[in-house]
Amino acid sequence: MSSANLVVKSLEQLQPKTLDHRRGVRKNVRLNASIVTANWIATCQVTDVSMSGCRLNLFKPLTLHQYLALEVKLVDSIASVHIPLAQVQWTKHQFAGVEFVYLSHNTRQQLVRLCEEINIFVEDL
């Protein structure tokens, strides 16, 4: 006589998994920013941010794989976070997702503080 193991799976385990290619938890924000490309400068709004990238609400469209610099204005401050090099990963209508390609040590520290502050105040948005 052999024994058999009964395996019971939850409904969550039976659902197909969707892949999220992001490398960090995104925090919802509403921050004004400026985009600088090789050909022009434009304003936009950052609508979510993580340590690896952000989503932009654009007034001027970007193209896939385009490189840019981003200057994000901090809330209630004259200070800003300067992202010297980012690349467009996706575009849809007036939105684009960018990945931060290069961050200086100082910029990385500013992003850490920004994400920590957002974590506290994200419910207020």
- Assign an overall shape: globular
Number of helices: 2
Text of the CATH class? Mainly Beta
Overall average pLDDT:
79
Write structural notes for this entry.
Helices cover 17% and strands 42% of the residues. The protein is α+β, with helices and mostly antiparallel strands and 125 residues long. The chain has a single domain (34-124), classed as predicted glycosyltransferase like domains (Thrombin, subunit H), CATH 2.40.10. Strand 5 (80-92) and strand 6 form a beta hairpin. The protein is globular and about 30 Å long.
Distinctive features:
125 residues, alpha+beta, Thrombin, subunit H, 2 helices, 6 strands, disordered N terminus, disordered C terminus
Give a concise summary:
The chain has 125 residues and is α+β, with helices and mostly antiparallel strands. It has a single domain, classed as Beta Barrel (Thrombin, subunit H), CATH 2.40.10.220.
Produce the secondary structure layout.
Layout: H1 11-14, E1 27-36, E2 41-49, E3 53-58, E4 67-73, E5 80-92, E6 95-102, H2 105-121
Antiparallel strand pairs: 1-2, 1-4, 2-3, 3-6, 4-5, 5-6
